[in-house]
Design the sequence.
């Protein structure tokens, strides 16, 4: 099964990755997709993108990046909708519409989102947005609920520390050092294992 997984951050991506691998094992061909115009300020957006990119490299996953900082357009869309759940509905639909369109263009069997790993998100609204996006593009939305601790895959403390929090903090450090962090827009980056090189960087 070819699956395009929308990633909101490296922490949620790690949970979704392990859950999907446990369920589908070798039958899964997974590609990460980044599109999150709602994240602000810009420094947080860049931190998350860099850590998602680094985690994808660590896991040897291809990543498709739509690195358009669309906060202005996002604010226009939601400015007159200050309350939830209407505001959340707009945000979910905006992102999942883009994910579904990308999945269709690239020929994926399914698309999913790491948002469904969080207990802070409305899974009902996410599911509705995913189904709407799938119906509009002729694709398939895969929903999985990883909120309950008993349903979550077994992830060791070392895995979380070394591939999630550490990557995020390294991304923060590299940004503070004015390291080049831009990623080509809307292209698929081949999976390469640069983890050792990055870890040994001064």
Sequence:
């Amino acid at each position: 099964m070819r699956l395009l997984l929308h990633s909101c951050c490296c922490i949620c991506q790690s949970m979704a990755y392990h859950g999907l691998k446990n369920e589908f094992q070798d039958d899964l061909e997974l590609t990460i997709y980044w599109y999150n115009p709602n994240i602000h300020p810009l420094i947080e957006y860049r931190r998350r993108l860099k850590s998602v990119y680094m985690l994808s490299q660590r896991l040897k996953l291809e990543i498709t990046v739509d690195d358009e900082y669309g906060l202005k357009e996002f604010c226009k869309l939601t400015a007159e909708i200050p309350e939830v759940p209407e505001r959340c509905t707009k945000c979910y639909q905006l992102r999942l519409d883009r994910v579904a369109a990308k999945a269709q263009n690239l020929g994926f069997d399914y698309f999913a989102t790491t948002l469904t790993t969080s207990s802070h998100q409305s899974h009902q609204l996410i599911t509705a947005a995913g189904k709407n996006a799938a119906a509009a593009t002729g694709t398939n939305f895969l929903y999985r609920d990883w909120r309950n601790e008993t349903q979550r895959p077994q992830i060791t403390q070392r895995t979380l520390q070394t591939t999630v929090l550490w990557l995020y903090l390294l991304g923060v450090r590299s940004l503070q050092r004015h390291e080049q962090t831009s990623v080509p827009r809307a292209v698929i980056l081949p999976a390469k294992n640069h983890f050792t090189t990055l870890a040994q960087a001064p």
